Amino acid sequence: xxxxxxxxxxxxxxxxxxxxxxxxxxxxxxxxxxxxxxxxxxxxxxxxxxxxxxxxxxxxxxxxxxxxxxxxxxxxxxxxxxxxxxxxxxxxxxxxxxxxxxxxxxxxxxxxxxxxxxxxxxxxxxxxxxxxxxxxxxxxxxxxxxxxxxxxxxxxxxxxxxxxxxxxxxxxxxxxxxxxxxxxxxxxxxxxxxxxxxxxxxxxxxxxxxxxxxxxxxxxxxxxxxxxxxxxxxxxxxxxxxxxxxxxxxxxxxxxxxxxxxxxxxxxxxxxxxxxxxxxxxxxxxxxxxxxxxxxxxxxxxxxxxxxxxxxxxxxxxxxxxxxxxxxxxxxxxxxxxxxxxxxxxxxxxxxxxxxxxxxxxxxxxxxxxxxxxxxxxxxxxxxxxxxxxxxxxxxxxxxxxxxxxxxxxxxxxxxxxxxxxxxxxxxxxxxxxxxxxxxxxxxxxxxxxxxxxxxxxxxxxxxxxxxxxxxxxxxxxxxxxxxxxxxxxxxxxxxxxxxxxxxxxxxxxxxxxxxxxxxxxxxxxxxxxxxxxxxxxxxxxxxxxxxxxxxxxxxxxxxxxxxxxxxxxxxxxxxxxxxxxxxxxxxxxxxxxxxxxxxxxxxxxxxxxxxxxxxxxxxxxxxxxxxxxxxxxxxxxxxxxxxxxxxxxxxxxxxxxxxxxxxxxxxxxxxxxxxxxxxxxxxxxxxxxxxxxxxxxxxxxxxxxxxxxxxxxxxxxxxxxxxxxxxxxxxxxxxxxxxxxxxxxxxxxxxxxxxxxxxxxxxxxxxxxxxxxxxxxxxxxxxxxxxxxxxxxxxxxxxxxxxxxxxxxxxxxxxxxxxxxxxxxxxxxxxxxxxxxxxxxxxxxxxxxxxxxxxxxxxxxxxxxxxxxxxxxxxxxxxxxxxxxxxxxxxxxxxxxxxxxxxxxxxxxxxxxxxxxxxxxxxxxxxxxxxxxxxxxxxxxxxxxxxxxxxxxxxxxxxxxxxxxxxxxxxxxxxxxxxxxxxxxxxxxxxxxxxxxxxxxxxxxxxxxxxxxxxxxxxxxxxxxxxxxxxxxxxxxxxxxxxxxxxxxxxxxxxxxxx
Length: 1060
Hints:
By secondary structure, the protein is an alpha+beta fold. α17 packs across α18.
C-alpha cells in the first residue's frame, strides 16, 4: 500500500468524524443559531459530501491508474486534507462563540435595528466583492498552496514583530485573488474584513477604514460586533472625519477593547498601489505601523501592492514580513491545474470531445502565460466566450501576438472594435461604455448604463430592459473576457483587472488605437450626461404628511428608490464636472453643460440631497459640495460658472451644519435644516420657500461668524497657513498638528513636541515643511512638519536658553539667539553650524530676523541695541543701531528689505535704513504702555503696532508719521496683528477674547467684533488668498473666520491643553 492509499484512508476517517460533528450541529435549533453560522454549516456539509465522493473515486481506481496519476493524486489528496483541517478549525471557532450573547442580540429587534442604522453611517462596506460573490475570485482549489500556507502560518504566529505582511508582485500575479482567498478561508475561523482599492474610484477609495469597520461590525463574533457598534454610537459623525481619526477611532478604538480576544482578526487591504492619493496611502501605511503593535497579537494586517512606483518603497522601509510573488516558487503547475480544470468546464458546456484540449496545447498556454494568472484567466474567458476550438487555435497559432498581458488585451479589444468598425453609432457607444467603466468614481451597474445612455442614437426609443439586453448581449458581448458583466442588473460591472484600465488610458501603449480612452474627454461627456439625467429625473421623494421617522423606517423610502442612473449621477457628477474643466487653457464647457449646471444648482439641489439622504451618502455630499466650491473659486473667465460660487459656498455650509437631520431623512431637511438656513444667502434665496416649518422670529440672516471651531487639546501658540492656503499648521504648548482648511479636519496625527522649559521660541520655515523649536538647555530641534518626526540630532552650541529663532526666506539657513549674548547660524538641511558664533551684544538676544532676500540678519537685545550681520559670512555690518533706552522686544524688515522697524520697552518704535543703519526720522512715540506687536503692510508703506494700552496705531513707514487716530475698540492688550495679503484690511487679536477687522486705509472698524473665543487670542493669520482668517487662543481652540464678511465658519476647533 503506497502513501497515497494511506492518505486516502486517513481522509475517509477524518471526513467521517467531521460529518458526524456537522450532523450534530445541523440538528440544533435553527432559532439558536446566527443565520451566517447556519449557512456556513450547510456549506461545509455540501463541501464535505463532494469531497467524500472524490475520495471514494480515488479509492475505486485500479492499481495501474493510481500509479499513473500518482503525482496529481498526491497533490489532490493533500488539498483535501488541508480542507478537512480548515473545516475542523472552523467548527471549533463556531462552537466557541458566545451563543447566549447572540441569542440576546437576535431576539432584541430594536437592538438589531439600531445597530444596523449605526453601521449604515459607515457605508455599505461591500467593497471587497468584485463579482456576484467573493468566492468567484478566490484561488482555484489546489493552487497557490505554497503562498497560502505561508500566510496561514503567519496568521497563526502571534509574535509581536509579525503583525503586518505585504504581498508584492507585478500586475497579473494573482495578488488580489490570494487576498480574497485568505478572507474566504478564514472568515469562519475568525473575523475578517477586506478592502480592494480601485483606481479612479476616489469616492470609494476614501472609505477604506469605514469599509473595514463596517465588515467587522457584521462579524460572526458578538464581541467584535458590539465593539464596533459602540464606537460608532459614540462617534456618529466619524464617517465625515479624516483618515487618521477614522483609523484611530474605528479600528484602534474598537479593537483595543478586545485585548483578551482569542480568535484571529484579519484586516486585508488589497491593491494599495491603485489608490489615487499617494499621500493618503502613505498615511495608511504610517498608521498601521504606528498602531498595530498596540493592538492584540491576533490582529493582523495583510496588504498587497505592485512592486513599481512610490508605495512599495514605503512598505519596504517598514521591514514588515514580505511575500514576493515575482521570486516565489514556480507556479506553472498551478496555472496548468487552473487551465486544465477550466478547459474541462468548457468542454462539458460545449459538449466537445474528451481529447480537447490536447496536453501539448495546455502546456503551450501555460508557457504563454509567463507565470501570470491574470493572463491565464483572461485567455480562458476569451476561449469560453466564442467557439472554443477556433479561439484556442487562434491563440496558439500566433503566440507572438498574444503572449503578454498587453498583447492579449490588444487582440481582444481589436476584435471587439473591428466587429463594429462599419457601424459608427455602435462603435461610439462601445467606446463610451468602456470609457465609463475606466473613469467612473463609483461602481457602475448595467441599469445605470442603460439609463445614462438611453438617448444614444443606437438605443433611442428602447425601454430600459431592452437596452440592458442590448448592452449585455450585443455591444459588450465580445469583451466579457475583460469585463465582468453580472447576471443581475443591480450588480456593478467591472474591469477584470486594473491592468486593463492602465492600458486603455496610456497614450503610448494605446497610440492610434480606436479604444484608447481620453479621460479628460470622457469626464466631459459624462458630466453632461449626469447633469442632464438629474435635471430631467430628480423629483421629490418626500410625502410631507409622512411620519418623521428615520428614512429606513418609512415605508416606500427605501434605498432602492434611488438606484440606477439617478443614483450614479448623484454620486459621480461632481467628479466628472470638475475634471472636465480644470485649467483656463481647457476648451470652454459646452453651453448645454453650463445651462444644466445652472438649473441643477438653482432648482434641483435639495432634490439631490434627498437622494443623498436616502442612500446614506451625506459624507460624499459634503465632499462633493466642497469639491465644486473649490473648482468654482479657481475658474477664470467664465462668469456663468462664477455666479454659482456663493451658492455652493452656502451648500457646503448647509450640509456641514445640518448633516445629522439630513441623514435622518429627507423630511427632516425641510422641517429642521432648511428653516434654519440664513435668509440672505443664495441657498436661502432659491430654496427657503420649500421649508415645511416657518421661522416667525429670530431667523438667521447670514451664516454664523466662525467658519469652524476645533478643539486643539491645549492653548494655541501659533496658526500658520500653508503656501497654497489649503492647510493650517497649529502649534500648541505641547505639540503640533495640521488641519485641512475647508472643514478643520486634522490631517495625520498630533505630534508631541516636548518643551524643555517655559514659553520658548518656535518657528516654521516659509513653506511649512520644517519646524524649529528652541529650549532652555540651549539646544534647537528641527521637526518634519508633515510627518511629525524629529530631523537629525539637536543643534548644540549655545550655552544658555534660546530666546529667538528665524529661518531664512528660502528655508536653507536658520539663525538662533541665546541668553549667552550670541547668535549662531545653521545649515537647515544638514543641521551643521555655519562659521563661528556672532558676538557683539552684551546681553540676551531677544529677537532676530532675516531680510526678505536672506542676505542680512538683524538682532535685538536686552542691551538696548540692534545689530546687522552679513548672513553669508557672519560678519558684523556697521555699528550697532543705538537710540532705544530699554530692551528691544521685536524687530521686523519691510517687505522690500529697505526699512527695519524695532519696538522697545521704552514705549517707542524706531525705523532704520537697513542698508546704512541710519535712523529714519524721530522715534514713533505716543504709546502709554509696552508695545506687543508690529507688522508691515504687504507693500511696506504702513506699519501697524499693537500695545498694552488696548489700542493699535498705524504709521507711515517712509516718514514715521502717525496715520489718523489710534484704533480703539479692544478692552484688553493686543497680542497679535496681521495684514491681509492685499493690504486693505488689518486683523487684531486681544486679551479681551475678540478679534477685530479694520480698514487699513482709513482705520475704521469693519463690522462687529468676531466673538466666540473664551480666552486670550494669541495668534491670527490670513490665508494666502485673503478670504479666511485663522485664530488660536488660550481657550484651546482654533477658529476659522470668513475674512470677507467677518462670519465664523462652522464650529470651533478645540485643542487639549492651554495657550496657543
